[in-house]
Each structure stands twice: as structure tokens, then as C-alpha cells.
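This part of the workshop introduces the protein records we will be handling. Getting from the letters to the C-alpha cells is the skill we practise here. An example says more than a description, so a record of this kind follows:
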Amino acid sequence: MTRAVPEPRKTLDPDRVAEWLARHPDFFVGREGLLQQLKVPHPEARGTTSLLERLVHDLRQRAEQAESRLEHLLESARHNEVQYRRIRALVLALVEAEDADALSQALATQMAEHFQVPAIALWCPDKLTDSEPLPPQPPRHVLDEHAGARLAALLDGRNSRCTRLSPTDWSRLLPHAQPLNQTGSCALARLTLGEPMGYLVLASSNPEHFRASMDTLFTEYVSDVLARLLLRHSRTSEQPSAHA
């Protein structure tokens, strides 16, 4: 008698099973006991766990991730609000300044108190200071040929830039900021309003405070505000006195 040869054991293609279950999401309705018997890989240890426990773990993880993203968004919103209030206070202080020297002093105070920038310099050409009765007071300076050439070299053809300051640069560009011969870093920006109106220097004795990779949008914004206000004060000082 010939023994029957057993047929090869057939196995289901996992991809086809997954495809079929995706097309029949109600398959487990009425088969809850089957769900409890299913085992899946444990997410944090070797071995398996029940499908329900794995689902609970995944849902808890998703909730934690959502909570973390929400906290990050809230923290960003709080940071943006603080920055908005600081910038608002800065602009209001600049607008309220009565003359160019008061403008530069207000800028220095706001930068030191709210933006951790301990030293600034505002370099303006002669045409903005000739009509003033007194020489400009630090941190405002008359832009001469040597300072202009060095500032232009540091900017290297750009409108704004963050870079390091050598001791020589510190002494030349921040002559009022002690101690002299100090290494550091700075954010530079041109003051322009149709034509060149000088330079703004925001400096720190920390060589890493203003890194080359930093964005300079804020520095450019401040320089745009300063250019307009300096031009306004220059025109005001040119007007004859009412008692003249």
C-alpha cells in the first residue's frame, strides 16, 4: 500500500493578510477574545506583549509627544512675547529721544538692559553732525576715513554681519567702551536711507556672543529705525531757531 505524501504546509503572505485586514476593519467586531490572544513585539524589551497593552503604550507615547510639542509651542510663544515687549520698549525709547545724542544714549541703555549687549557705537558722517552746535557724544562718533574703511572691510560687501573683533578693532571702533584692547565680537550694519548714513556696531567682550552663523535681521531692523530718526534730527537741527 502506497503511503500518501502529505501536501506542503501552506502559509499566508503577511502582506496579503495586512491588505485584507485593511479592507475589512470590522473583522474583529464580535471577536474581542481573538484580540486578547494576539501578541506583538514589546516596544521596550525583548519578547512580546498583548496587542491591547501595545496599543495602550503607543497611545500613551503619542500623548506624551503631543504634550511635549504643545509645551514647546507655548515656550516659543512666551519667548516671542518677551522679545516683542523688549523691541517695543526699544523703539519707543528711540522715538522719544529729543536729539541724536539722546538717541544713541537710549540705544545703549536699552541694548545693555534688555538685550545683553554691553557696548555699542554709532558712526555717522560729517554731513549729519555739521549742523549740530556741539560735537557728538559717545557712543555716537563722527565717521572718519579710517573708521569707515575698517567698518567696510569687516562688512566685506554685506549690509550686515556678525564677526569677531580684534583688540585693535575694539579700540578703534569702540573708543569709549572700557577696557580698550579688548577682544570680542560684534554685529555690524550699515545705516542707509537712499544713501549711506553711517554704521551701527553692537559689541560684546565675549568672542562667541555674536557668531558668524547668527541671523542679523534684528540688527538691520534697528539700523533702519536709527537711519530714519537720525535724518529727522539732522533736519530739525538745520532749521533756524524761532528766536533767531
